[in-house]
């Protein structure tokens, strides 16, 4: 029974009208509200100009930057710097509603072809295409370029040149043969055995006299040497005993 009473009370509370209570609460949050968002438009662009230079130490400049705005959204500028190869690089740029457009100064620029070069290139490629197409389809009308024949003057000049060349070659061969013959003749006559001349009577007499005198001098030197050796031996034989006797007398 108590359970039924509690259930009836809970249902009554849930279905009761409490709008008058909510409206009287000053801190109550309204059931329905609207959110509004306000945006502030960006300020219009203003023209400006700036430029600066900088370096790693006073008096040294290794980078610059300058920029100009026209006030309508277009900005133009340029900046320079020193790359690792110690070359100055400059970048010019334009920034507008279509994006950022840089122009690099160090981009390789190819040579501009003149009108004559363009026409020559067109003729070359046209002829190349014709030849390639003819080779691909075996065009029978394609003619082989023949080597031009020599004219009478050219043929005469060639014959004269060959004749003169043969004469010069024959003359060189003759001179070479003569020089070789002279060399062989010189070697044949110069390689003779040189005989030793005989001594005259005076030379023979002088040689004999010289040898005789040499023998006499040698014999005299031998005699003197023998005498000196005998004297030395005699001196040693007589002086040693005397020295021994003097020694015994003193001691």
TrEMBL record:
One of its GO terms (cellular component) is chitin-based extracellular matrix. The keyword Signal applies. GO terms for molecular function: structural constituent of chitin-based larval cuticle. It comes from the Eukaryota. Keywords: Cuticle, Signal. The keyword Cytoplasm does not apply. PANTHER family: CUTICLE PROTEIN, CUTICULAR PROTEIN 47EF, ISOFORM C-RELATED. This is Cuticular protein 9 rr-1 family. Residues 1-16 form the signal peptide.
């Amino acid at each position: 029974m108590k359970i039924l009473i509690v259930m009836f009370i809970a249902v009554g509370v849930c279905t009761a009208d409490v709008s008058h209570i909510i409206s009287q609460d000053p801190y109550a949050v309204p059931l329905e509200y609207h959110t509004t968002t306000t945006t502030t438009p960006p300020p219009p662009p203003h023209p400006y100009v700036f430029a600066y230079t900088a370096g790693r130490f006073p008096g040294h400049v290794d980078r610059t930057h300058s920029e100009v705005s026209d006030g309508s959204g277009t900005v133009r500028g340029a900046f320079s710097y020193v790359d690792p190869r110690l070359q100055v690089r400059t970048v010019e740029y334009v920034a507008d509603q279509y994006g950022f457009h840089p122009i690099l100064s160090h981009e390789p620029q190819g040579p501009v072809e003149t009108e004559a070069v363009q026409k020559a290139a067109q003729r070359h490629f046209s002829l190349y295409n014709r030849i390639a197409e003819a080779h691909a389809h075996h065009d029978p009308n394609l003619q082989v370029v023949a080597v031009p024949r020599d004219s009478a003057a050219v043929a005469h000049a060639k014959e004269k040149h060959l004749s003169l060349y043969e004469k010069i070659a024959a003359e060189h061969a003759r001179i070479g043969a003569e020089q070789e013959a002279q060399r062989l003749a010189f070697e044949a006559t110069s390689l003779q055995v040189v005989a030793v001349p005989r001594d005259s009577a005076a030379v023979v007499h002088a040689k004999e006299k010289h040898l005789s005198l040499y023998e006499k001098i040698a014999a005299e030197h031998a005699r003197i040497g023998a005498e000196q050796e005998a004297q030395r031996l005699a001196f040693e034989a007589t002086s040693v005993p005397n020295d021994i006797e003097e020694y015994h007398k003193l001691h």
